[in-house]
Write a structure and sequence with these properties.
mainly alpha
Length: 113
């Protein structure tokens, strides 16, 4: 009897709720990141600057990089990443925000830290 092959790929799902205490500081940091990025073409740069100025959630998305989460983890390489941000109504006392609630992921192992 042989052992079934196991995939080397792992999907890591992380959900964060962030309270923005200073929108101006966040926006300035995002604009700074955009200005420093030499890979953004000029037409896209103007669009990005407009987006982060108009929407704090967009500013946050420009500053959060999934590679930063796993870049220094030994033995792993980031194969693919996607992320988004959005403004939400948040009530920490609501059962909807219970982080320990089973999300229906089935037999996948979960680790929280």
């Amino acid at each position: 009897m042989s052992t079934p092959e196991t995939s080397r790929f792992v999907r890591l799902r992380v959900e964060l709720v962030i309270e923005v205490e200073d929108e101006s500081t966040l926006t300035k940091a995002a604009l700074g990141r955009i200005a420093e990025d030499p890979e953004i073409p000029a037409d896209e740069r103007a669009h990005a600057e407009s987006a982060v100025t108009e929407d704090t959630a967009e500013a946050l998305a420009y500053l959060v990089d999934p590679f930063d989460l796993v870049g220094d983890v030994p033995g792993v390489e980031l194969a693919q990443a996607s992320w988004s941000s959005e403004r939400i109504d948040y009530d920490p006392d609501s059962p909807e925000w219970d982080l320990d609630e089973d999300d229906g992921a089935g037999d996948e192992e979960e680790a929280t830290g």
